[in-house]
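I hope you will forgive my troubling you with a question about protein structure. I set the record out below, with my sincere thanks for your time.
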Amino acid sequence: MIKGLVSIIMPAYNCASFIGESIESIQAQTYVRWELLIVDDCSTDNTEETAAKYMEIDPRIKYRRLETNSGAAAARNASMELAKGEYIAFCDSDDLWMPDKLERQLEFMKKTGHNFTCTAYEQINENGRSLKKIIRPKKRCDYNRMLLDCPVGNSTVMYNVENMGKFKVPNIRKRNDDALWLTMLKKEKYIWGMDEVLMRYRIRQNSISSNKLKVIKYHWILYRDIEHLSILRSIFHIGCWCFIKILRLK
């Protein structure tokens, strides 16, 4: 484990149109002690070639391709195994970081002593244009609150590996980021939120996260098969999730 180093986990699949911009937002960070671990889940587009262009000029960027298409959970687990940093941060291959994201978040964590944190973020469309919508995190969120609507932007999360250790992402093909936060909250009581917009979240047409009906199916799997909640409690939490998301759209 290398003190002060931030290992950035980036699963990738058929994201050649966006990954270059995501990498550049990481390269633009004011905090420069980072390594970017890109694990490609057998993309069929030019994701590998695009990543290679950046690797040639920046040794902090590392790329690995999985042998078989296995889902984002497997890609995240492979990145976790490679991570050497004192901290681990997460960035999806189509999201963008503000230039001071790492610096501001690390300052917050060191000042407060919090091990597990997230930030506010802005929604953008496929072309990178703002949708004029800011999602703000809870000041603190525990396991039971996370179950309600998973109020955490994946690409905003960072945690202290030295104090919390590494985790295995639960084997669920979708919503595995939510499953990971729930796993981590069984060890660390809270994830703490920063009320600063430090990430831009890209909403893509036909994506799983943009299709609320499909997401309900994966939340059911998360609650029943991964978290082993009762049928009644799983129904309750899906109802809460739907209600909160509907209110958020207004």
